[in-house]
Amino acid sequence: MMNSKTLFSATGLVITGLFLIVSVAMISLIPRLRIDLTEDNLFTLADGTRSIVSNLDKPVELLFFYSEEATADVPQLRSYGNRVQELLREMVIASDGNLSLRVIDPIPFSEEEDEAVEYGVQRVPLSQGGDQVFFGLVALDTTTLPGEDAESVAATNFKTIGLIRPDQEEFLEYEFSKLITQVANPEPPVVGFLSKLPIDGGVNTQTMTPTSPWMIMDSMRQLFEVRRVNPDVQVIDEEINILLLVHPQDLSPQTLYAVDQFVLRGGKAMVFVDPNADSQSQPGQDGVPIALPNQASDVAQLFEAWGVEYDPERVVADRELALMVNVGDATRPVQHYGMLGVQRPGFANDIITNDLQVLNFSSVGALSQAEGATTTFDPLVLSSAESMLMEGEFFKALTDPTILLDEFQASGERYTIAARVSGNVRTAFPDGAPMVEGETEEDLSTAAEESEAPVVLPAHLSESQGTVNLIVVADTDLLRDRLWVQIQNFLGQRLPQAFASNGDFLMNSLDSLAGNAELVTIRSRGRFARPFLAVLDLQRDADDRLREEESELLANLRQTEQQITALNASREGSGPSPEQQAEIDRFYAQQLETRRRLREVQLTLNREIESLGSTLKFINTALVPILLILFVLIMGYVRNRRRNAAQV
């Protein structure tokens, strides 16, 4: 007979087995749970993503074309493929049934391969002459109306990410959410674009060859329908949802009136003005930029009506936010007080600037609320308190940024670089539509009779129909590629590598104006270069010391050269005199000594940075684990003491 001990053991095994079976079943039926301890919650779906996928008006199917068999021997790509599938499955779980997912392995010469090609997924070779793999995503609308065929509908309403690139992992959630949004809402907002800058491509005046559009235009066209607006427009098309003005120079009263009435009718607008647009500088024969007589832009009449104050002749210089730039053949970069790298402390708590890392600007202006304004003025981006307003003439064709150091004196005031303006406004044209100079109403009447398609102006509005929504930025150079993105060519495509958030700032702003706030909360949740502030402070201190050394060296060199020149003038036709030779020897000795001092300062800087890095490495790798172990030991000791005391 089975004794009680054996029976107890068998019963325990059965209970343990049943517990494991139930646990495995429960784990397989519920979503995977985890705790995300990263600073920006990189592994947690953003609230915007959850809102987008759970509020879809129609079902959307996701097709993930992934060559699993062909990537069997590529562990990095397989790991990335698992990461993509995990993210897609989490989005499906959060969608409450609105999303479905199919993972398709398009093996060569299969129907799945033909399907991937039909949807525009790209073939990418793993190596020269090796296998080609697919790694793309398709979102398609599976909604059908009576009498429609599901396949034909899906074929016409789908969006594709042809290649999910591993180096873009930090943007996966945003790109996937944007793809779903585009399918669910196939009609994108219309952005009317008005600018005299070559932002949408132009002609190189030196080589007379066409230039590519700025990358910012490619970004806009992915999410919006962009239409160019003629600089001489008299009426803004009603189909335009957002009007984008970039560097509006010398606009006619008729065009300003068209913008005024567009805003009063409820149209959204984003205006970029600039006291000194670097993009208008022309390269000279020696490489030195040639400034145009006027590189500033303003819409003073509209700003007055909107309650915005702006001086197109003043530029913000900032010592704390100054970017380091290379000048000429200099061996080390120098601070440029007119080029600013604004980081998180300079951003307002607004959905537009949420999660941005750094915005790079060049020769920016200052905005403020006009006295007696009826609108609300909310700063979005601000300078530091170590800033001042300088005359714009300093920045035209500036080749040596150290010139700004002598003129700089911090005002202690923080200046607004970008702002949101909202509220009720009155027209900037209280007398109605302006007429062309020298033109009379009789001339207009005659022209209208002779014209085949006369311009018909809508009824004049004297005040806004509801609350206006405007975003004003006192810089246009932030849109230039050189300040925020590097462009690489890959398989004939221009691929951006962003090193700043300038592009995200524009897209966030347009999303906000268009009312698509969910995407704003998802953008820029990934990896960006985060400056080491302590190291930057060390570099600034050393830079000041180095500059003092350099100034002393230059002064000594000039004095020595003047003495040698004077000696040579008095001893023409003869070899170097003992005095001359002594001066020359002193010059070389002084030069060597100064260089030695410069090396010592730089060596001290490197030692300080290395010491700081070693300290942080010790804290991360040793101190924290040691503290955790001590905490556990202390807790164990305290628990044992309490247990022993209770037993006594």
Give a verbal description of the structure.
The chain has 648 residues and is an alpha+beta fold. The chain folds into three domains: 47-179, Glutaredoxin (3-Layer(aba) Sandwich); 187-201 and 211-311 and 365-383 and 415-433 and 462-531, no CATH class; 534-647. The protein contains 15 helices and 25 strands. The protein has helices spanning 4-29, 47-54, 75-94, 111-118, 150-156, 172-184, 215-223, 253-264, 300-306, 403-407, 441-450, 502-514, 517-522, 533-570, 578-647, and strands at residues 60-66, 99-104, 123-125, 132-141, 158-161, 190-195, 202-203, 210-211, 225-228, 242-246, 268-272, 282-283, 289-290, 308-310, 314-318, 322-325, 334-343, 358-362, 367-369, 375-382, 387-391, 416-423, 468-473, 485-490, 493-498. The strands form eight sheets. The protein has a seven-stranded mixed beta sheet with strand order 9-6-10-11-23-22-20, with helices on both faces. Helix 14 runs antiparallel to helix 15.
Entry summary:
Helices cover 39% and strands 20% of the residues.
